Amino acid sequence: MNVTIRKIGNSEGVIIPKEVLQRLGLSSGDSLELREIEGNIQLVPESADLAEQMRAARIGMEKYRVALRELAK
Q1: C-alpha 39, offset from chain centre
Q2: What pLDDT was estimated at residue 4?
Q3: Most buried by CB count within 10 Å: which residue of 23, 26, 53, 66?
């Protein structure tokens, strides 16, 4: 299946056909991880565990922002 890189605002992207999204159980708003492996691009659905861990890390970093800044000195 061929897709074309298109201008989307100030960025560029590809449109994933609806049939492919349905087969993979994906929909608008889902997060994908982009991997570059040996000159190829892979889009992999982000695991829910990783997304939850990242959300928790962001909350912790915001809560302890001052302490983390001091530790970084």
Answers
A1: 19
A2: 94
A3: 26
Provide the whole-model pTM. Answer: 0.54
User: In order along the chain (73 residues), what is the average pLDDT of each group of 10 residues?
Assistant: 92 93 88 92 81 84 92 91
Tokens of 33: 């991880």
Q: Are 47 and 53 in contact (CB under 8 A)?
A: no
CA pair distance 29, 56, nearest whole angstrom = 20
**pLDDT in the model for residue 54:** 79
Q: Which domains does the chain have, with CATH numbers?
A: 6-71 (2.10.260.10)
Exposure string for 33-53, b = 16+ CB within 10 A, e = fewer: eeeeeeeeeeeeeeeeeeeee
